[in-house]
Predict the structure.
Amino acid sequence: MLIVMHHKATDSQIDAVISAVERMGLVAQPIPGSERTAIGVLGNKAYVDDTNIRDLPGVKECIHVSKPYKMVSRDFQPRSTVIRVSGHEIGEGRRPVVIAGPCAVESEEQILRTARAVKGAGADFLRGGAFKPRTGPHTFQGLKEEGLKLLALAREETGLPVVTEVMSPDTVGLVARYADMLQVGARNMQNFDLLRELGKIRAPVLLKRGMSATIEEFLAAGEYIYAEGNHNVILCERGIRTFETATRNSLDLSVIPLIKEFSHLPVIVDPSHATGRRSLVPSMAKAALVVGAHGVMVEVHPEPEKALSDGPQSLTIPGFERLMEEIRKLEGFLGY
């Protein structure tokens, strides 16, 4: 339930409503706004009887929210959230960010070469996997902490903030020591123990949509992190599994404006995993920005034909430089 207070409600009236909610054995979450304060009611397992609430002084109305996601919905917070990460702002009204780098960190030479190149082309963040959740157990699984150290080295040299994946609750602290933003991969979108652990820290989290997840399930996963106290959540559409086999996944661009209707959280797009084809990445990256994505994340490798992971979907360095030139032209058209 969401309790909307009158714009002239006093602090004592707001406190009285919070106390009334807590006496019901529920959690009251004040949501200050530019014009009025709202109070989110959490912890209910069923319908909340608002009889003792709606007639309290200062209460304008009580809105019952039936969605499984509440705090990340626009019912609770109509104003769009902007997430600040290492000097960059991600969200509505801000220039879209570009996150670029290899699927996996393979060596010092590879990650430094890539980091220098994407930095020179205008990328805002460096991505790279140190822990790799692969479909088969006999494929490259990542350099783990050594990979994290190499990402930190690349950040030190280029100044690019680092985005990298975390796979299990017990490695959250380790990855957070090295990364500026922690990524939850598609396979872990509903790893609820991991989401809860990420909710206990304050580092920004990039949450990818599961390959078969509905929008409701996607936003509910974000709610797990948000409900634990970490409000620095960014959503990422990376394609869903359909009957189509010509591409790796089916990129659901309609989800971008739809999520922006449902939720106040920023949302970006990963066209590399969505298509699995290098030739399609530039078109889909630009299309994502046209429909309102707050950024794109693309894979870049200096020698994709030698990549240990996802070479066919990785842009070459010249290919990424061309994409950035096209994105800058598109940003002018979009008014950034």
